[in-house]
From TrEMBL, chains A, B:
The EC number(s) this enzyme carries: 2.3.1.274
Keywords from the UniProt entry: Acyltransferase, Cytoplasm, Lipid biosynthesis, Lipid metabolism, Phospholipid biosynthesis, Phospholipid metabolism, Transferase
Root EC class: transferase
Membrane-crossing segments per the record: none
A single GO molecular function term of this UniProt record: phosphate:acyl-[acyl carrier protein] acyltransferase activity
NCBIfam families: plsX
Pathway(s): Lipid metabolism; phospholipid metabolism
Function according to Swiss-Prot or TrEMBL: Catalyzes the reversible formation of acyl-phosphate (acyl-PO(4)) from acyl-[acyl-carrier-protein] (acyl-ACP). This enzyme utilizes acyl-ACP as fatty acyl donor, but not acyl-CoA.
Protein name: Phosphate acyltransferase
UniProt GO cellular component terms: cytoplasm
Length: 337, 337
């Protein structure tokens, strides 16, 4: 049985959608035990369940609150209480769709980093025309040094191997040209480090090639990574809106699209981020899954199932061991960061 | 009559598509005179025309060549000869879909910057659900300082006003959260400068909101801007591929899509970057339009027409005057860059 602490107060549609997601997850998997952490009022709506324990917290962190402030002042926040359950050994994972900065800060403060890791990073799985790909860092570290990017590449590779099941994943460095000499100051130096690493590094990868599936691990700083994800969402949404507007003008097109509705449904499922659940925070001492702020019940359910899989594969322990083995090269890199 | 120097050797499909584009532009507009700059062999294919002059260059810059090397060694390259035509006063604009780094370097070297401009920047027009928006910088400057971003905002605003016809355009700073405190080191400091500027600055804008049309000017450094554009292209292409794959599996959907083909065609036209022509390099002493590397004849034609409009509206002169008026605040910013 995997114990998972769920931050009931986190996300744009909390607590209703989060609680619904919890119920769906309990139905979908018999192997989880949920600690639902939230205010008395929020938890009162949830019916009793043999694999659920309610943990009351009097506070919660808002989506736009400054993480450091929240960590310092809100000692009884739901996200903090969730992490304490892991710290005490009751739960083995935290899932939250709330303020991701606060989740990151709380994870660092409560669980700490795996020995040797400089900066934990968020790994997001993207659908592509070939294999799924992992983009790391998706937003935890906005200002990075070259050695941080090298570590992201190590962690992302292990994640792609163990969780996505991809042998010897190709690692690409997100940049603005394919040649190694192209990019900004950070990327040029990271390219030099990656070229000398034992990873399956294929060089720079351009934004256009991410979704063609030309690499299974895409490395970038958290500022660029987060913009990359948000722009992708925006394009997909805008394309859908523009298409809908053109179809609406034309009765034949309306009929045509209704004939194609089964294909459209399959397509939507394939491209919907909610199918892929949350994004793990790699490099902390424990399993932390960060959900999308706009998570609905289905996204929460999938994030919980990802957390279960993560605990069962023991990736955190493996990350620790693997990074330890590579400690020599990491120390060398720290020296030149 | 607007004289335009066209780099016939520039672009992935040069010279054939570039020459075809030239022919289409000559048909579409009676107000242009084209200087076609390329090798003897490339130009021999083009029939004589009363509004065309052929200018022979013995060399050209390849797409992946290092710009500085190309500038130094290839003294008789087509891009260099094109700029010399503007320098000599024969042509008033340069259009090239070739190596954009070399075009940038050549523009700086031959034409120089408008007085007061620290860094010329590429302005790209994006379709959105509302007004079109201009993203600046789209790739000229990969490492920027806060004061550079402030200048990009000034140039982008003037461009949106004069070329896109948008009154008092809203300026957004591309970042990873809407609150002013969010972003990397560069963006946080640029936010402070923009907040004090006379521009219609609406604060940070997230990647997801670009295509919803929440700002008409989107400011970022050239590394982030270029990735943003390439990711957008990639998402649109991948979405189209995935949709096609799902439709192909289902005879009803194939029928449906054939009924909707007129709506699909209008949709494609609306989202196709080739419709928007090239992107101007703002801040140099002259009109320079940088075409997409994958430009076909239609894209080249539109880039030429954009160049004509640019010359006719006298934007370069206006940019010079406008930035001169703002020189006081710019000097202050230079002091704190």
């Amino acid at each position: 049985m995997v114990g998972i602490a769920l931050d009931v107060m986190g996300g744009d549609y909390a607590p209703q959608e989060v609680l619904k997601g919890a119920q769906e997850a309990l139905k979908a998997s018999k192997g989880i035990f949920l600690y639902l952490v939230g205010t008395q009022e929020a938890l009162s709506e949830f019916p009793g369940h043999e694999r659920v324990s309610k943990v009351v917290a009097s506070q919660w962190v808002k989506m736009d609150e400054a993480p450091s402030e929240a960590l310092r002042r809100k000692l009884d926040s739901s996200i903090r209480r969730a992490f304490e359950l892991v710290k005490k050994g009751k739960a083995q994972a935290v899932v939250s769709a709330g303020n991701s900065g606060a989740t990151y800060a709380c994870a660092l403060f409560t669980l700490g980093r795996i020995s040797g890791v400089m900066r934990p990073a968020i790994a997001t799985v993207l659908p592509t025309l070939k294999n799924p790909a992992v983009l790391i860092d998706a937003g935890a570290n906005v200002d990075c040094k070259p050695a941080h990017l090298l570590q992201f590449a190590f962690m992302g590779s292990l994640f792609a191997e163990r969780i996505l099941g991809i042998q010897n994943p190709r690692v690409g460095l997100l940049s603005i040209g394919e040649e190694g000499g192209k990019g900004n100051f950070l990327v040029k130096r990271a390219h030099a480090l990656l070229s000398e690493s034992p990873l399956n590094y294929i060089g720079n990868i351009e934004g256009r090639h991410i979704y063609l599936g030309e690499a299974e691990v895409i490395v970038c700083d958290g500022f660029v990574g987060n913009i990359c994800l948000k722009v992708s969402e925006g394009v997909a949404e805008a394309v859908a809106e523009m298409l809908k507007a053109e179809v609406k003008k034309d009765p034949l097109a309306i009929l045509g699209f209704s004939l194609a509705r089964r294909a459209l449904k399959r397509f939507r499922k394939r491209t919907d981020w909610r199918e892929h659940g949350g994004a793990p925070l790699l490099g902390v001492n424990g399993v932390v899954i960060i959900g999308h702020g706009r998570s609905d019940a289905r996204a929460i359910k999938n994030a919980i199932l990802v957390a279960q899989k993560f605990v069962e594969t023991g990736l955190t322990e493996r990350l620790g061991k693997s990074l330890h083995q590579k400690s020599k090269s990491l120390k060398e890199n720290q020296a030149i960061q």
